[in-house]
Design brief:
This protein has twelve helices and two strands, in the order H-H-H-H-H-H-H-H-H-E-E-H-H-H. It is an all-alpha fold and about 270 residues long.
């Protein structure tokens, strides 16, 4: 016990504890971020006919969605109308776990989906039956690996997306407490659907703004970024000079403080 007390009162105890706390916080953040990006729903075959999907989708909607969006999807209170949003918007919001959500005043975040692939397809079919809108796609329909051009996609991403999602696609802060989420670890179909529906603060990138072929280029660039190694060492989240500067100041100042304390002790 006396030994522990002696170490606790050591002049280097506080700097060491501070450094340990920073390393622990950074490790926990990285682990939580990696876990969030790995959340994906396993796809299953949708074999039901369209009329059956619409009927079942309406039942699911009445149970889980109508309290916010209204019995006829006309919108109610904080929840918007779903008439005319199409199946693409439903597939993006529900399959990524953004909907349903408990507090409509908060920004919807990606999480584990509440509904499985079949239930999501049924909901999308029902909403699509209410009025024409952007159609959902499947990963198999998007031949981005064959037809996409990563170099062109990188240019398109920097010109149209980087101001919100960061040059490396890691996401970034927006105004009024909102944020642009990371695009890393997102399924190709959800990236495509986000571009054609414009969820939340994101603008709609119609085919006249970014063509379907160019959308595939962007997807290919994003997927290439996911697998790109960090040749310079620790990536630090790839969010730019903020984390790099924080690390440099933390380690640099910590080292200078340690040297100053050591020199002072030596002088005594």
């Amino acid at each position: 016990m006396s030994q522990l007390s002696r170490y606790r009162n050591h002049r280097f105890a506080r700097p060491v504890l501070l450094a340990f706390g920073l390393l622990l916080a950074g490790g926990l953040f990285s682990a939580a971020n990696a876990a969030a990006e790995s959340l994906r729903a396993e796809p299953i075959a949708i074999s039901a006919d369209k009329s059956t999907l619409i009927k079942e989708g309406k039942e699911i909607f009445n149970r889980g969605c109508s309290s916010c969006h209204g019995l006829n999807a006309e919108g109610a209170g904080a929840a918007p109308s779903l008439i005319g949003v199409g199946s693409a918007s439903v597939d993006f919001q529900v399959a990524t776990g953004r909907m349903p959500m408990a507090d409509m005043s908060q920004q919807a975040a990606r999480k584990a989906p509440l509904y499985d692939e079949y239930e999501t397809a049924a909901l999308a079919a029902y909403v699509a039956s209410l009025a024409p809108g952007p159609a959902s796609v499947t990963n198999e329909e998007l031949a981005w690996e064959r037809d996409g051009n990563a170099a062109s996609g990188g240019t398109l991403f920097r010109n149209n997306c980087a101001m919100c999602h960061n040059l490396a696609g890691q996401g970034g802060a927006l105004t009024k407490g909102k944020y642009a989420p990371t695009v890393m670890g997102v399924e190709a179909r959800h990236i495509y659907e986000a571009m054609i529906t414009g969820p939340q603060a994101m603008p709609v990138f119609g085919d006249k703004i970014i063509s379907p072929e160019e959308k595939l280029d962007i997807i290919k660039w994003i997927k290439a970024m996911e697998s790109e190694p960090s040749l310079g060492g620790a990536s630090l989240g790839r969010v730019g000079p903020v984390t790099e500067g924080l690390l440099a100041w933390t380690l640099g100042l910590g080292l200078l403080i340690g040297i100053a304390v050591w020199l002072t002790a030596k002088a005594k």
